[in-house]
Amino acid sequence: MTKKTEKISGNEAVLEVTQAEYAEAVNLGWNDDDIQTPGKRIYRRVTRTAKPEDLLSSNIKVDVTFQVGLNVLEYFQKRAEAMKSESYQTEMAGVLSAEMERETTLDSKFEYLTENTAFIQAVAERVKNYIN
To answer: Residue 6, SS3?
Structure first.
């Protein structure tokens, strides 16, 4: 079965399904959810431009599959139920995000200290006193 598609313009196309094509599809066991009813339809391609915030890695969701112990799964399922959360996956993602945020915050604190001349001098003085 072939559907005739003709291009009208750069972003429009006409799809034509004939009565014969429709009947053939129905004979194959298809229903109206599987094929368009007979007739011509114009389809327009719409281009969506992503906003800068759409491209932040924190706004992009990725499917991940990994194994955890049954006790870990049960813990997050109970936690999600108690907190009326969407799912245990949401709870797991929240814990992982919080840990990542905690590490990022610690890194920035350590960076501040290692670039703080007064702090470095104070540590050097303590080490010198400790050695002597």
So the answer is: strand
Distances (CA, A) of 104 to 65, 94, 96, 113, 116: 25, 15, 12, 14, 18
Task: Report long-range pairs for 33-40 (Cβ below 8 Å, ≥24 apart).
Answer: 36/3, 40/14, 40/15, 40/16
What's residue 34's pLDDT?
A: 84
What does the pLDDT look like over 49-99, one tens digit per residue?
888 898 888 888 888 899 999 999 999 999 999 999 889 999 999 999 888
Q: Are 58 and 71 in contact (CB under 8 A)?
A: no
CA distance linking residue 17 with residue 93, whole number of Å: 46
Residue at token pair 């053939």: 24
Per the CB < 8 A criterion, the answer to whether 71 and 77 are in contact is no
